[in-house]
Write a structure and sequence with these properties.
Blueprint (H helix, E strand, L loop, with lengths): L2 E7 L12 E7 L7 E10 L3 H5 L20 E8 L9 E4 L6 E5 L6 E3 L16 H14 L6 E5 L4 H12 L3 E6 L2 H9 L5 E4 L6 H11 L4 E6 L4 H9 E9 L17 H5 L3 E4 L9 H13 L7 E5 L4 H9 L6 E5 L2
Parallel strand pairs: 8-9, 8-11, 9-10, 11-12, 12-13, 14-15
Antiparallel strand pairs: 1-2, 3-4, 3-6, 3-15, 4-5, 5-7
Helix pairs in contact: 2-3, 2-8, 5-6
Bound molecules: NADP nicotinamide-adenine-dinucleotide phosphate.
Pfam families: ADH_N_2 (PF16884), ADH_zinc_N (PF00107)
InterPro entries: ADH-like_C, ADH_N_2, ER, GroES-like_sf, MDR_fam, NAD(P)-bd_dom_sf
Organism: Diaphorobacter nitroreducens
């Protein structure tokens, strides 16, 4: 059986997460039991939710236990199988964690899903045609539920969730405005992802300036906002929201290292009669087939071809993950393991 490099959570962050919170170890993969499958991971997905799991505080999901392999989505290939439904060479997506190989019980529902890489590249099943894509779909379709011609705004627009949101909203005839960090990301959002406009939050780093930029980019006001960041950007959106606007609260990455994110004028939610709804995509498994079908179609037809930032080798994962929390990634952050 092959040797397996793994990254464990060694200790919990005190404030900002650091590389010293993680530990790289090498172990032997155990011999397979009946019903088990050995998967060699090609890519590991790095996602902002992992930062929350590193804490030992109340959340929607259990904390990552210390001394265990970090949680994470993976795509890879079956290299040995003692389960009749899986053959060597099958391409699969699962939650293999921060390691090169995983042993998976093929009988446990939802642990492993075979994927077709004829028209969609394997890595896309961790991004546009995976959890981040479905996240965008749920917030747009089930919470914002836009009509054609309405204006929708998304923060972290160049990222895995934001780029999928843009393609899905354009397909519904919306005016789509992104918010992203820096001129390169903004140019990519409009020129390559096809958004109608993009606001650079680094050049509009306070409430007044962001509200002014939103007024210009959204001349008819804002009907839907997909929140990925939090802080003054949400305050600015509330100032420009139309009556009966909907906010899908997906993430607040600006506060994941413990920074406070006060809301300056919550009365606008009442004044605008707004709907503000948080959601966790894994609690809505019923929409995944429909969402993945649409996202797969967009990806196969080339209408959804988001950018990827790829770190090389498992040892690079902690640094890449910390970079993701600071906006150093450009598109879906992955780690290539083979
Ligand atoms: N609710 C759910 O079920 C669910 C599921 C998946 C993801 N999420 C959330 O969705 C959001 C996007 O996730 P993703 O995987 O697509 O990541 P991503 O957008 O690919 O990467 C994170 C991006 O966040 C932006 N960012 C980080 N710190 C920021 C700050 N202080 N101010 C403004 N922007 C900041 C950066 O983009 P810029 O450089 O452009 O600012 C960075 O590239 C996250 O908040 C994540 O937690 C939620």
């Amino acid at each position: 059986m092959p040797r397996n490099q793994q990254i464990l959570l060694d200790n919990r962050p005190q404030g900002e997460a650091t590389v010293d919170n993680f530990r790289l170890v090498t172990t032997d993969t155990p011999a397979l039991q009946d019903g088990q499958v050995l998967v060699r991971h090609h890519y590991l997905s790095l996602d902002p939710y992992m930062r929350g799991r590193m804490n030992d505080s109340k959340s929607y999901a259990a904390s990552q236990p210390l001394g265990e392999v970090m949680i994470g989505g993976t795509v890879g290939e079956v290299v040995e199988s003692r389960h009749p439904a899986y053959a060597v060479g099958d391409k699969v997506v699962g939650m293999g964690g921060w390691q090169e190989y995983s042993v998976v019980d093929g009988n446990t529902p939802g642990m492993l899903r075979k994927v077709d890489t004829t028209h969609v590249p394997l890595s896309a099943y961790l991004g546009a045609v995976g959890m981040p894509g479905v996240t965008a779909w749920y917030g747009l379709v089930k919470i914002i539920a836009p009509k054609a011609g309405e204006t929708v705004v998304v923060s972290a627009a160049s990222g895995a969730v934001g780029s999928a949101f843009g393609a899905l909203a354009k397909a519904r005839g919306c005016r789509v405005v992104g918010i992203a960090g820096g001129p390169d990301k903004c140019r990519y959002v409009t020129e390559e992802l096809g958004f109608d406009a993009c606001i650079d939050h680094r050049a509009n780093g306070d409430l007044k300036s962001m509200a002014r930029a939103l007024k210009e980019a959204c001349p008819d006001g804002i009907d839907g906002y997909f929140e990925n960041v939090g802080g003054y950007i949400l305050d600015a959106v509330l100032l420009r929201a139309n009556a009966f606007a909907r906010v899908a609260v997906c993430g607040m990455i600006a506060g994941y290292d413990g920074q406070p994110l006060p809301l300056q004028n919550p009365a606008l939610i009442l004044i605008n009669r707004m709907k503000v709804e948080g959601f966790i995509v894994s609690e809505h498994m019923e929409v995944w087939p429909e969402a993945l079908k649409e996202l797969g179609g967009l990806a196969a037809s080339g209408k959804l071809r988001p950018r990827e930032t790829i770190a090389q080798g498992l040892a690079a994962a902690p640094e890449a993950f910390l970079g993701l929390l600071k906006g150093k990634n450009f598109g879906k952050q992955l780690v290539k393991l083979v």
